[in-house]
Write a structure and sequence with these properties.
Elements lengths: L1 H17 L36 H12 L11 E7 L5 H17 L8 E7 L4 H11 L4 E6 L6 H8 L5 E2 L6 H5 L9 H16 L5 E7 L2 H17 L3 E7 L5 H11 L6 E5 L2 H14 L5 E3 L6 H9 L11 E4 L13 H11 L15 H18 L6 H10 L31 E8 L2 E6 L7 E2 L4
Parallel strand pairs: 1-2, 1-3, 3-4, 5-6, 5-7, 7-8, 8-9
Antiparallel strand pairs: 9-10, 10-11, 10-12
Helix pairs in contact: 1-8, 3-12, 3-13, 4-5, 7-8, 9-10, 13-14
């Protein structure tokens, strides 16, 4: 078991790097990388102003969630340390800053005081220790929130552990899920991929064989071997596997699909980069096949939407494909989870990333917005005179939900996924499956239809 845990941790680290391989916003001037998203990266949010969810109701939802008081904040600011890999994940910062503006201008601040973000950017691994040490030694920093980081994670958490309360924003590496320094209010990559496998086994009918197409690298192989295959093997489902290089062409992918038997498989599963998702779509057309496809959120993104338009096919993503995500959708915005409130306020207060023509409100922006809202809830519960390490850390680790725009109850540090109790920072266990069909998003197994998949029960 120990050896299996070590291999899984190494695989998850590689799987995290897979999240850095494709674009989340084709119009940004920063170096681009993918994010695991709940919905594609388009730039126009669905309307959320239909009755009864007018702006006043959306603000009231936020007041109820944060336990705040309507109005503007005043007094000395409460400083929150914020760490992000800005070159790759600028949408985190869009969500963070929009939440702060909303809270300070309409929700009375946190514990009656305005929030102030103190940013620290990570570009190289050494920056993790630098940011962590700076925040750990700054008595004015009440808590630290991360965005998404690919390098320097361990060094950051080591510096902050027992020094500052930490909310892990959108983790994608092994250290994000196995650190004792803080908590993450989602199921993360382990929950999403394992949940996809559970969906294939239990909700797609009589599946006898699955074709798995993954990146021909440590990340793709780890996702297939360690997080997907064990579930379908236990169910007695046969599978074939093929790896494709990140530089593969559509013709290369067509050959790989033929080799893996995509034309006869009951289901084709994709654990590949966005560009290879595009190539799978093109290869399927060239081969004249229309397989049932279940993909990760890596297949979302503006490049996919643009490619479909250029091909004359239209749509946001390929028709009939299934996608694994966090259980709620930017494109099926509901009131109860706070998604409508988020969409309204990020459009009001969000600022496009430097050099970007449009606001990227999808990707990790929503969960980051929700993390600041939730931290504000904790500050309000504690009051201005009790914002110490023990109080805030206790609120974070003891939070049971519901969490804004995240499916299911939370149980921080107690989630056992695939029989492994190593994910000590993970609080969530539920994920969702949605399908894009004939121009509409359908809830197949998610929080919107009351049927989310619990990865701990797969």
């Amino acid at each position: 078991m120990k050896r299996k845990q070590q291999v899984l941790i190494a695989g998850l680290a590689a799987l995290g790097l897979l999240a850095g391989a494709c674009s989340s916003d084709s119009e940004s001037s920063v170096t681009e990388a993918p994010v695991v998203t709940d919905a594609p990266g388009v730039t126009e949010a669905p309307t959320v102003t239909d009755a009864p969810n007018a702006d006043g109701d959306l603000v009231q939802w936020a007041l109820d969630y944060t336990e705040g008081t309507a109005g503007m904040a005043s007094g000395d600011s409460i400083k929150i340390g914020y760490v992000n890999q800005e070159d790759y994940f600028p949408e985190n910062t869009i969500g963070i800053n929009a939440a702060v503006e909303f809270i300070n201008n309409e929700l009375g601040g946190a514990a009656g005081r305005p929030l102030e973000i103190v940013p620290c950017n990570i570009a190289v691994a050494e920056d993790g220790a630098k940011c962590g040490t700076e925040f750990a030694n700054n008595a004015d920093i009440a808590a630290v929130v991360t965005g998404t980081i690919l390098v320097g994670n361990k060094e950051l958490y080591d510096a902050l552990n027992t020094k500052k309360p930490v909310i892990i924003g959108n983790g994608v590496t092994s250290d994000d899920f196995t650190t004792a320094a803080g908590s993450a209010f989602t199921a993360g990559s382990p929950g999403v991929v394992a949940g996809m496998a559970g969906f294939v086994v239990s909700q797609l009918g009589d599946v006898k064989n699955v074709a798995i197409i993954a990146g021909n690298n440590a990340a793709g192989i780890a996702g297939a071997d360690l997080l997907f295959k064990p579930v379908i093997e236990k169910a007695g489902i046969a599978y074939t596997f093929v790896g494709v290089d990140d530089t593969a062409t559509a013709a290369d992918v067509a050959s790989a699909m033929t080799a893996v038997g995509a034309d006869t498989a009951d289901v084709v599963v994709l654990i590949v980069t966005l560009q290879q998702c595009i190539n799978v779509y093109d290869a399927s057309k060239a081969l004249g096949i229309d397989p049932v496809i279940v993909a990760t959120g890596l297949c979302f993104g503006t490049p996919m939407t643009d490619h479909l338009a250029e091909a004359g096919d239209g749509g946001t993503v390929p028709n009939n494909w299934y996608f694994g995500g966090y259980g709620y959708s930017y494109f099926q915005p509901d009131y109860e989870s706070g998604m409508q409130t988020y969409l309204d306020k990020v459009q009001k207060y969000g600022v496009p990333a430097p050099g970007a023509a449009n606001l990227e409100y999808t990707g990790f922006a929503g969960p980051s917005f929700a993390n600041i809202m939730t931290l504000t809830k904790f500050f309000n519960q504690l009051g201005p005179d009790a914002l110490d390490y023990a109080g805030i850390d206790g609120k974070i680790r003891g939070f049971k939900g519901p969490m804004m725009i995240v499916a299911g109850p939370l149980d921080c540090g107690k989630q056992v996924i695939l029989g492994l109790p190593i994910f000590i920072s993970v609080c969530g266990s539920q994920m969702g499956i949605q399908q894009y069909k004939d121009g509409e998003w359908l809830s197949i197994a998610d929080a919107l239809n009351g049927k989310p998949i619990d990865a701990t029960k797969v």
